Amino acid sequence: PRGDILSMQCLFIKSCLLLSFFKNNEYVCVSICLQLISTGEPREQIFRMTGPGADQDPKGLFTIDMNSGAVSVSRSVDREATDSYQLEVSTTDYSGNLIEGPQVFRINVIDQNDNRPIFKEPRYTGEVLEGSPTGTTVMTMTAFDADDPNTDNAVLRYNIVKQSPDKPSPNMFYIDAERGDIVTVIAPTLLDRETLPTTTYELEIMAKDMAGSEVGLTGTTTATITITDKNDHAPEFTHPLFEAHVYEGSTGVVVNLTVDDRDDPATAAWRAMYSIISGDPTQSFEVQTNPDNNEGMLSVVKPLNYEASEFLSLLIKVENEDPLVPDVGYGPSSTATVHVRVEDINEGPVFFPDPLIVTRMENIPVGSFVASLNATDPDILEKQSIRYAVLQDPAGWLSVNPVRGTVNTSASLDRESPYVYDNKYTAVFIATDNGTPPATGTGTLIIHLEDYNDNAPYVLPSVARVCEDTYDVTVAVVGGWDKDLPPNAAPFKIELGTQPDLDKTWNVTRVNSTHSQIRLLRSLKKDNYQLPLLITDSGVPPLSNNTEVKVQVCICNKNRMHCSSAHSHRASFLVPLATLLPVKLSSFSLLCHSFFVPLVLCFSV
Questions:
Q1: 520-547: pLDDT as tens digits
Q2: Count of beta carbons in the 10 Å neighbourhood of residue 117
Q3: What gap in Å lies between CA 139 and CA 119, rounded to an integer?
Q4: Which domain-ending residue is among 228, 244, 263?
Q5: Which of 66-75, 188-197, 352-361 shows the lowest mean pLDDT across its residues?
Q6: Are 279 and 315 spatial neighbours (Cβ–Cβ below 8 Å)?
Q7: Which whole-number Å values give the CA distances from 447 to 79, 390, 427, 507, in the listed order?
Q8: pLDDT at 500
Q9: In the structure, what pLDDT confidence band is assigned to residue 43 with cuts at 50, 70 and 90?
Q10: CA 259, 261, 262, 264: dihedral to nearest 10 degrees?
């Protein structure tokens, strides 16, 4: 009948089973039609396949027989690169007209164990504390396999191939075959860093796939395990007694204290700290740790005195920076005694007080007593004499009795001397004993000098100018100056000299305690005039000084002054004045009110 199946033709692939096998280094795939569809009438058809691996990259990996529909692989496939391919198959007639499809089907690449386990690092490092309990985890090893994780191809098992060194046991460590955890097997008492032949062990670790079967592929790496230190050994002095000798008056290291510590060097469990327990009430010593060798450097920080103590006994303790483990303590060997013998030296005399400060009047008679020096010899156990001498006397004013130490003047003391600063004169003396060898000491004498009225005052400025044919004008305002101190200086009395008839031409009136004004009473012709003045200070008794002020009478023309030569006067004393015109005295304004102010000229215009 027409509806019967007359022929069995594969018109359309409803599903496809891909049979894969490895032969001649190539995968071979064969498709099997699982369902055929009949159109009722046999027709010729062509199979076509599209998708990645067919007509798309990677092109031509899979091919289909256009007549039979058999699918084949043309070259090797790599599951680790692509684990499946999704393709589409359709049928057309010879003219290209679609008959059926397209139908999607997937080709899965079956994994083959072609990848070895790989460790990320060629060498791994770990640490374990000495004395750790058995079963302590040191580190975890992890390898990776690129094969299918859902198959035994990527199931790894770990194993320790070799331990180096193999003492005290070749099986000090164990690795969990599945997790890769390395743990300790050795007993805690044997895991002692100080007794082990080495503190570093190397393990060769192997990872094997196929769950560790004989046909599995392997990968290896190295694990380095360091046995770290804990402070289970107290430091101990190498000797119970140390001896030191030190000269009195000196400082610095006197002895090095040596210790043994079996813990790991350069760690806090090894580094030593020293302390002085007894024997140093004046805190004259200190102990510092030498970072290079852990020795204690005992130093004198305050000079010792032989006369006070010839012998000292110190008790010193050593500890670690880190505390000891609970079951270990510091024993008697962690303390030591240091005997220090102080050696006598000839010490120099010491002045007291230093400096010695006295007050004396300047200009006291030569040979006057100034001070009595006092120097003592610290070597009280020795009977030694002291002699004094002048070491520094800038002005050469002093002498000293070499035996008694009394200081007297050998020249007049002058407060106004350039060697005196802030009214103080400083001299230095030296004291020498008769020891072997002789020792010296120095002391300072400061003399506070009181002022004596020994300097006559003087007048500034010494030159003034005025226009000829003028009169009843202020020529200058002059000020008094004195090297002495009050009350031996201002107020000053400035007046005309004793020459006859001066008061007919000149007049001097007081402005304030330090200044006076000079007035010209009648006109004078062009010339240089010497005006004698007498200035007196306020000392007891007062001192006076006869001085002169040169008054230059000049021709004034268009605000310019033509004067006679005044080469004999220093430039700093030449005080040009403005042209002075006849004005009333009432118009004269003074601004000179301060005591010992710098030179100020007050004049009328």
A1: 988 888 899 999 999 998 888 898 989 9
A2: 24
A3: 14
A4: 228
A5: 66-75
A6: yes
A7: 107, 15, 8, 45
A8: 86
A9: low
A10: -120
Within 8 A by CB and 6+ apart from 461, the residues are 476, 478, 549, 573, 574, 575, 599, 601
pLDDT digits (tens, 9 = 90+) for 149-200: 888 999 999 999 999 999 999 999 999 999 999 999 999 999 999 899 999 9
* Beta carbons of 349 and 433 less than 8 angstroms apart: yes
pLDDT class for 279, splitting at 50, 70, 90? very high
As a whole-number percent, the residues of the chain with pLDDT over 70 amount to 86
What's the token pair of residue 588? 């004269």
Which two tokens mark 85? Answer: 């391919």
Indicate the number of domains in the chain. Answer: 5
Q: Please tell me which residue, 43 or 379, carries the higher pLDDT value.
A: 379
Q: Mark which of 183, 207, 228 sits at the end of a domain.
A: 228
- The pLDDT of residue 27 is 41
Q: Are residues 542 and 512 in the same domain?
A: yes
Q: What is the span of the domain harbouring residue 129?
A: 118-228
Residues 462 and 445 in one domain: no
Structure tokens at 59: 């092109």
Question: Is 5 within the bounds of a domain?
Answer: no
Q: CATH number of the domain that 365 lies in?
A: 2.60.40.60
> What's the per-residue H, E or C state across 228-295?
ECCCCCCCEECCCEEEEEEECCCCEEEEEECEECCCCCCCCCCCEEEEEEECCCCCCEEEEECCCCCC
DSSP secondary structure letter of residue 599: P
Query: Is 405 found in the same domain as 366?
Result: yes
Query: What span, in angstroms and rounded, lies between the C-alpha atoms of 342 and 468?
Result: 92
In a domain, 104, yes or no: yes
Alpha carbon separation from 324 to 272, 276, 488 (Å, rounded): 12, 20, 81
User: Is the residue at 582 inside a domain?
Assistant: no
Q: Are 419 and 394 in contact (CB under 8 A)?
A: yes
Query: Does the N-terminal peptide bond of residue 438 adopt cis geometry, omega within 30 degrees of 0?
Result: no
Q: Is residue 280 part of a domain?
A: yes
Rounded-to-10 torsion of CA 182, 187, 188, 189: -150
Q: State the Cα–Cα distance between residues 35 and 32, nearest whole angstrom.
A: 9
* Letter string b/e over residues 541-572, b meaning 16 or more CB atoms within 10 A of that residue's CB: eebebebebbbbbbebeeeebebeeeeebeee
